[in-house]
Amino acid sequence: MLITKEREKNRLNVLENGYNITPHLDMNAQLFTEPLTMVLKSVGNRVSEIRQDGKKRFLKKDADKVLFDFNLYGVMIQIRFI
Fold it and tell me: Could you give the CA distance from residue 16 to residue 28 in angstroms, rounded to a whole number?
């Protein structure tokens, strides 16, 4: 399935105070023009800020997960914890 293959191409570096996620997606930029939504489970209320390309990303917190949109052709996504 395409989504599973693309999900496995992302790189996650775990830091003491957060995550750095680098998207490595080989998707056709002419076909895929909208941002993707990432779901992080089991981090819930610990996330304080998400940035990509120097801009804060809007995030939706739930009890056990965080959802946010990201630019799949952008640079590293920085996620910081409280």
Answer: 34
Q: Where are the alpha helices (DSSP H) in 1-82?
A: 2-7
The alpha carbon torsion through 75, 37, 66, 79 (nearest 10 deg) reads: 0
Name the average pLDDT for the chain.
80
Q: What are the two backbone dihedrals, phi and then psi, of residue 62, each rounded to the nearest 5 degrees?
A: -125, 180
Q: Is the pLDDT of residue 4 over 80?
A: no
Q: How far apart are CA 27 and CA 39, in angstroms?
A: 19
Write down how long the chain is. Answer: 82
Enter the tokens of residue 30.
Answer: 């002419």
CB atoms under 10 Å from CB of 38, counted, come to 20
User: pLDDT value at position 2?
Assistant: 47
Rg of the chain over CA atoms, in angstroms? 13
